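FAQ: What does a multi-protein file look like?

Like this. Sequence, then tokens, then the next protein.
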Amino acid sequence: MSADPTQTVRPLTGAPRATGVFDVVDEVDDSELVERVLAGDVDAYGDLVARYQQRLFWVALKLLGNREDAMDVTQDAFLRAYRRLRGFDRKRRFYTWIYRILVNQGIDVMRKRGRRGALPLFGDVVGAGDAPDSRALSDELRGRVWETLDRLPPRYRTLLILRDVEGLTGKEISDRTGVGHGTVRWRIHQARKLFRTEWEKRPRRTEP
């Protein structure tokens, strides 16, 4: 696997088709394509890209709401998957594996957005006494918030980021993720309970 994978992962240009019809190579199973890539056939990775690039782009676009970020995250996910391919468990589906890589990359993008701005206080969990004022968090406290978010299960973490970091409504989150509005509301409620539990485990800051 010494060839340059950037020659395989083509930039997404123009408007991706929303019909659900993708340029796929269905004749060969994913696991066989992976074996061929590991044997040095970089073109086989191009087949995997052609099979899943558009589908993953739409996942990233729904998650991030920004076309440029979605394109970057999709291409980065393929590059990361290529570099980690020797560690891929062939008992798993390739799409499921790279989907998780993509979502983690999307969360990293949202994390950077949150670090640039003022994070909400997650209701009454992050108390005003922990922050220099009621509208913005110090860099230290913002870091603690993200450390706590990172300890949540992915499906809860993603929804909580979309709601309390990105500021989306429940309906907007439902539209982006494809999860029913009622389920979104329930999971956000559960996510906040989990966040509180994890937050309260952290060591309390002692006054000088």
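And here is the next protein:
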Amino acid sequence: MFLDLECTGLTDVDDIIEFGLIGTTVDLQVMFEQQLLVEASDRAWQHMLDTPIVRDMHTTNGLIDELVAARAAGTLPSVADAEQQIITRLKSQRRRDGGPLILAGSGVWHSDMHVLERRTPKLRRLFADRRIFSTDVFRHVSLETTGEPIIPLSGSNHRALDDARHALEEAREIRRIFAGRA
């Protein structure tokens, strides 16, 4: 399960505002993609607007405009409702062997996992504790040893689904590199 989150920031005040999910098979074939905008608390929303780097990033990528429009239309789910929607989706796509889902993505170990624990603990519990595939580790090793990323970053706009797609492409390349060593 490739996951990326966009948040109002990275403090305990902040909330998730976008989920990007890609369910894959073990051989990294896409089973489904889901993008979900989420309502942030007024406090988290204000913190985002008061934090220039986050506000500018989410203004440039269009996320703030989409959130404002969805807020005005009253169509944003709460984090709890979004969590339940995602859990329902994941349970319908459960592994055949009944094992825990493997969380994958870029930064999932040092960032997203902690946000999931704090904001969506039921969702967090669906993922294996020790089988986390964080593609950014391999990206940094590649950059440090070769000066090149595993695959070029193709215009990241810091949108959750686009970032999850990039992590999936990195994972495919990592798998190709290791398969060549077998």
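Q: Is there any per-entry metadata?
A: Some entries carry free-text notes. For the entry above: The mean pLDDT is 91.
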